[in-house]
Structure prediction request, 432 residues.
Amino acid sequence: MARTDKYKKVVDQGEVDLVPFMNLLAILIPALMISTEYIKIATIAVASPRIGPKAEAVQKPDENPPLNLSIMLSSNGMYIASANNVLPGAEQGATAQPGPTIPKVNVTVYRARDVSGKVKELARVWNYKGKKFNLGVREIVQEDFSHRLELLKEQYGSVQMSEELDFNYPALNEKLQVIKKAFKDEKQVIISADPQIPFKTVIRIMDASRSFTNDAGEKEFLFPQVVLSAGVV
Amino acid sequence: MSDANSKKASVKQMTPEELEALEDAHKVQKKRKASAKRHRSSGAQSMSITSLMDIMTILLVFMLKNYATNPMNVNPSSDLNLVQSLETQENHVQLTSLAITEKHILVDDKPVVQVKDGKVSATAKREGEDGYFITPLFDALQEAADHQKKLSQYNANVKFTGRMLIIGDEKAPYRLLSEVLYTSGQAEFSEFEFAVIRM
Prediction:
């Protein structure tokens, strides 16, 4: 009798109780899922003119002076200039022209109230030469966008549409394509801005000056090397 | 329905002995059913969860690995909204991080200077209101740079590159940004990586 009891016990221990371990896993996995990022964070490399003590700017003697293409942002638009060269398209009496090279344009802004009652901007659409762009220079397909708008309307109840002045990034992109054609080896662009220009706009300018999609559907670089300058010091 | 009715009718016609016998039979049947149920449920418990465990364990390891190898620890919060951008590169190097939020400037997640309405107060700047040099920020950055340089003396893998990760709020004005960049330049940081959300 005793022997059989012993035997029984051994058999019972043979099966490991996995429930606590399962509990642990069931808690750990959601915790890790929450902490992993679904937003992809990436970086843009930017240089600043070396002001610090490490200033050893070794400039190669070059027969072609660098283009020193600069984009200046002011409250009414963008000024594109080059210190050493005449830019294409700027020959015809550009000095007499008082306004910015690319003035601001009207863009369509979609806004809605979120759960807490705060007005949130949902999308901003640039309409340039019959094409529509969001995020400055990303071309959008009309059907996709109207579908997205429908979804947003469902989510927020009502979406308000308004016109607002903003920088004309698609025009900048186009202008830079023309400049790039004339100066194929140039990669650098100097960006400076008025004091109140927000960080977001600066990033948009970098996006607009980085690359474009050519007619064959391939990506070509414009001026990916960004140097931030302090503007008017 | 009709079956139940006929059953009722037959019950009425039965003698007490017959009824008792019937009840006993029912009891036996119930017992059998219950035992069968118990057997079945115990069978369900011993259902093989090994494969599920395998999946879970693999997931766990994968996620832990993912969690541990992500060098950029950026926590967007209510006063730090990152900008959305296109076509950027992913960063896999641990850099000194500098965050410009709506309320503070943080170096390596430690608040250094307060920011109010997109401005650092004049007292924190060396040259006052119009200055570009933010003294507390400079001190913190120099400390970070010195720390990295010291590390590089002992560890060949660590090198002071003068690169810095800048996590800017989308509303941070250019003036504040250039002040931060100028101060970083003074503290020997001259290459910057701007953190953005890739779209």
